[in-house]
Design goal:
This protein is an alpha/beta fold. It has 16 helices and 16 strands.
Length: 381
């Protein structure tokens, strides 16, 4: 169940509360990505300490390893990984885009060549929902066709038709106990196709809706434009989810356009590349200028890393390839994202979101590394 608690008077920003089988999620919310039943370098105690309300797992990857036999024997994904709070699982539809060279799309689903050992794997609406039922996630995503930014109008139109047909089939499949199912709107950058997709998916009456096909190689202005005209098409009384993006500043702007939920690999992936996120942008901690910098990664941050360690120490760990460096930076980066969400919720409740948004946008300067990583993420699994 989703409760819309408040809306911002100057934008589409919304304060809400989503109740799931494993707990309540206050929105706007960011979901750390635990693709293979783990958020890389972190354990569940870390995630709880960071304030994570919900995490994301991936149907395609978990079906390959460890496989559903193991997950079922463990009693579901929550018990397997020792996480007691909500989990959302992607359907595997994004892998149609990210693993395009190893996937062949048919009208009934997609045949993948495993990126692990090359074996053949078929995934369609029935299979995707069956796997998510076994995983026991709180929120399952409908199986969709996510075309790249370079797709022609005819290809996007075909993807919209397949997404609707597959969504209808997903609605008919058994669910896990208390499991919610979200539909996904496609349509690329075409307004009329987005309107058509939204109308068709809404007619199927899902528990929530996702803006699919964002951050698939398109320029940022186009991404924001697409989100701006798509989000208002979706029911006000149900949660809206932008899949697989973006930087803290982008999330604030997407919230202003009416989006409630997000996930992104950037916090942990950039941490493994030695880059720190802050409220004013991102920077490479490995840089020589931080060799004797004994200040925290970010002044004012309340994470374990900033409370106990310095830039100089984290830089040293990264430069000598110590795993602790990756862990400490992942802790900080995820806390940065979760602090932004917490602040946004507080500002919305206080009626001061518009001022916060303007100030945040003014001070935030994305680094060239973050921009390059976004482009890379659009072409990788």
């Amino acid at each position: 169940m989703f409760e819309l608690l408040q809306t911002d008077g100057e934008s589409g920003a919304r304060l809400g509360r989503l109740t799931t089988a494993h707990g309540v999620v206050e929105t706007p919310a960011f979901m750390p990505v635990g693709t293979r039943a783990t958020v890389r370098t972190l354990d569940t105690a870390d995630l709880n300490a960071l304030g994570a309300q919900i995490i994301l797992g991936n149907t395609y990857h978990l079906n390959l390893r460890p496989g559903m036999e193991i997950i079922r024997a463990a009693g579901g994904l929550h018990k397997f990984m020792g996480w007691e709070k909500p989990i959302l699982t992607d359907s595997g539809g994004f892998q149609i885009f990210s693993l395009a060279k190893m996937a062949k799309i048919g009208e009934d689903g997609v045949r993948f060549q495993s990126h692990i050992d090359g074996t053949s794997l078929f995934l369609g609406p029935k299979e995707a929902m069956e796997i998510q039922c076994d995983l026991g996630s709180d929120i399952a995503m409908a199986f969709d066709d996510c075309p790249p930014h370079t797709a022609t109008r005819a290809e996007v139109e075909a993807a919209v038709a397949r997404t609707t047909r597959w969504a209808a089939e997903c609605r008919e499949q058994p669910r896990g106990k208390g499991q919610l199912v979200f539909g996904i709107v496609q349509g690329g950058g075409y307004v009329d196709l987005r309107e058509r997709s939204a109308a068709e998916i809404i007619a199927l009456d899902f528990d929530g809706y996702a803006l699919g096909g964002l951050s698939v190689g398109e320029p940022e202005p186009e991404m924001m434009r697409t989100a701006a005209f798509t989000a208002p098409l979706l029911p006000a009384g149900k949660p809206r989810y932008a899949m697989g993006l973006g930087t803290p500043a982008q999330l604030v702007e997407l919230i202003a356009r009416g989006v409630d939920m997000f996930d992104c690999v950037l916090p942990t992936r950039l941490a493994r590349n030695g880059t720190a996120h802050t409220f004013t942008g991102a920077f490479a901690v490995k840089g020589a200028e931080y060799k004797a910098d004994f200040s925290p990664i970010e002044a004012g941050c309340d994470c374990f890393t900033c409370a106990n360690h310095t830039r100089a120490y984290v830089r040293h760990l990264l430069n000598v390839d110590e795993i602790l460096g990756l862990r400490l930076l992942s802790i900080h980066n995820l806390r940065c994202y979760l602090r932004v969400m917490k602040l946004v919720r507080e500002q919305l409740a206080a009626g001061t979101f518009a001022k916060f948004r303007r100030e945040f946008s003014t001070q935030y300067q994305p680094s060239s590394r973050v921009k390059a990583q976004r482009e890379s993420d659009s072409a990788s699994a």
